[in-house]
C-alpha cells in the first residue's frame, strides 16, 4: 500500500498524543516545554501533508508551518527564560512545587 | 515512489521512538538528545513531502537553535540528577492521550479527502518567497513575526537578567 495523506496524518496524531501525554504527566518544566515542541512539530507535519496532497500547487500550508516555527522559537526562548528565572528564585523547576498562585 | 515509501516508514518509526524516549526516559539530558533526533526525523518527513525549504528551516531553527536552548536550560538548572518523574496525573493523562488519538484517528480515517493528483512544486523556495513577500501575499504577518521575535528576545533578556 502506497504512502498517502492518511499515513502522514496518523503519524501527526501519534506524535501529538505523545506530546500531550508528556505535557500533562511530567513534573519537570523543561520536559513539559520539550513535549510542547513535539506537539507543534506534529501540527506542522499535518499542515505540510495537507498542503502536499490537497492543494499541491498552492503552498499556503507551508507558509502556515513557517509562521508556526517562528512562534515556536519565540515561545521556546521566553519559556526557557521563565524556567531559568523560576529556578533562580525558588531552587526548583518541578511544576508541582511552583504553586504560588494555586488556590 | 517506492523509495519515498521506505524513507517515510523509516523516518516515522525513528520519530515516534524518539518522541517516546523524550517522554519516558528518566534522564533529562538524554531526553533532550532524543528530542534532537525527533526534530531530525521530522525534517526528513518534510523532505519526503517535497517541502525542501521547510526541511532546511526545520534543521536550522529546531536542530540548530531550539535544541541548544533546551540543553543550555538543562545545564543551568542542574536538575539532571532528579530525573523527570511523572506527577499524580500519569494515568489520567495516558487515558486522555489515548482517547484523543482514537478520536482523531477515527475521524481522519473516515473523512473523504478530496485528493489532488497534480505534481508538487519543486523547488518550493521561489513560490514561498513570492507568497511571503509578493503582491497580495503574507507581507503583514511577516512584519508581525519580526516584531514578535524582537519582543521575545527583549522579554527573554529582561527575564534572565541579574538583579
Give a short synopsis of this structure.
The complex is a heterodimer of chains A (103) and B (163). Chain A is mainly α. Helix content of chain A is 75%, strand content 0%.
Provide key terms for this protein:
heterodimer; A: 103 residues; mainly alpha; 3 helices; B: 163 residues; 74% helix
Structure description:
The complex is a heterodimer of chains A (103) and B (163). Chain A is elongated, with a radius of gyration of 17 Å. Chain A has 3 helices and no strands. With 103 residues, chain A is an all-alpha fold. In chain A, 75% of the residues lie in helices and 0% in strands. In chain B, helix 1 (2-24) packs antiparallel against helix 2 and helix 2 (28-48) packs antiparallel against helix 3. The model of chain B has no long low-confidence stretch (mean pLDDT 89). Chain B is globular, with a radius of gyration of 20 Å. Chain B is an all-alpha fold and 163 residues long. Chain B is built from 6 helices and no strands. Chain B starts with a helix and ends with a helix. At the A-B interface, helix 1, helix 2 and helix 3 of A face helix 1, helix 2, helix 3, helix 4 and helix 5 of B.
Uncertain segments of chain A? none
Shape of chain A: elongated
Identify low-pLDDT runs of chain B.
none
Number of E-state strands of chain B: 0
Large-scale geometry of chain B: globular
Main beta sheet of chain A: strand number and arrangement?
none
Oligomer: heterodimer
Secondary-structure element pattern of chain B, one letter each: HHHHHH
Task: Please tally the helical runs of chain A, counting DSSP H or I stretches of 4 or more residues.
Answer: 3
Helicity of chain B, as a percent range = over 70%
How much is the average pLDDT of chain A?
Answer: 90
Q: Secondary-structure element sequence of chain A?
A: HHH
Helix proportion of chain A? over 70%
Radius of gyration of chain A: 17 Å
Euclidean distance between termini CA atoms of chain A: 54 Å
End-to-end distance of chain B: 59 Å
Query: Main beta sheet of chain B, described?
Result: none
Q: Give a count of the beta strands of chain A, DSSP E runs of length 2 or more.
A: 0
Largest interface: A-B, 72 and 86 residues
Q: Write down the Rg of chain B.
A: 20 Å
Average of per-residue pLDDT values of chain B? 89
Amino acid at each position: 500500500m502506497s504512502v498517502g495523506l492518511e499515513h502522514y496524518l496518523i503519524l501527526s496524531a501519534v506524535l501529538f498524543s505523545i506530546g500531550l501525554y508528556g505535557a500533562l504527566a511530567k513534573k519537570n518544566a523543561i520536559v513539559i516545554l520539550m513535549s510542547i515542541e513535539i506537539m507543534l512539530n506534529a501540527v506542522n507535519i499535518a499542515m505540510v501533508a495537507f498542503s502536499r496532497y490537497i492543494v499541491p500547487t498552492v503552498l499556503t500550508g507551508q507558509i502556515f508551518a513557517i509562521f508556526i516555527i517562528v512562534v515556536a522559537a519565540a515561545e521556546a526562548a521566553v519559556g526557557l527564560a521563565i524556567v531559568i528565572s523560576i529556578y533562580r528564585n525558588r531552587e526548583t523547576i518541578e511544576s508541582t512545587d511552583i504553586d504560588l498562585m494555586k488556590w | 515512489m517506492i523509495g519515498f515509501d521506505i524513507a517515510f516508514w523509516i523516518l516515522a518509526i525513528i520519530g515516534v521512538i524518539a518522541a517516546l524516549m523524550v517522554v519516558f526516559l528518566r534522564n533529562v539530558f538524554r531526553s533532550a538528545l532524543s528530542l534532537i533526533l525527533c526534530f531530525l526525523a521530522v525534517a526528513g518527513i518534510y523532505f519526503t513531502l517535497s517541502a525542501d525549504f521547510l526541511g532546511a528551516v526545520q534543521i536550522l531553527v529546531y536542530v540548530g537553535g531550539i535544541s541548544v536552548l533546551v540543553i543550555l536550560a538543562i545545564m543551568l538548572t542542574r536538575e539532571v540528577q532528579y530525573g523527570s518523574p511523572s506527577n499524580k496525573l500519569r494515568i489520567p493523562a495516558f487515558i486522555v492521550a489515548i482517547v484523543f488519538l482514537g478520536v482523531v484517528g477515527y475521524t481522519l480515517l473516515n473523512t473523504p479527502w478530496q485528493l489532488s493528483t497534480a505534481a508538487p512544486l519543486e523547488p518550493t523556495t521561489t513560490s514561498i518567497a513570492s507568497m511571503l513577500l509578493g503582491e497580495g501575499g503574507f507581507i503583514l504577518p511577516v512584519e508581525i513575526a519580526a516584531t514578535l521575535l524582537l519582543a521575545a528576545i527583549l522579554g527573554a533578556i529582561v527575564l534572565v537578567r541579574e538583579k
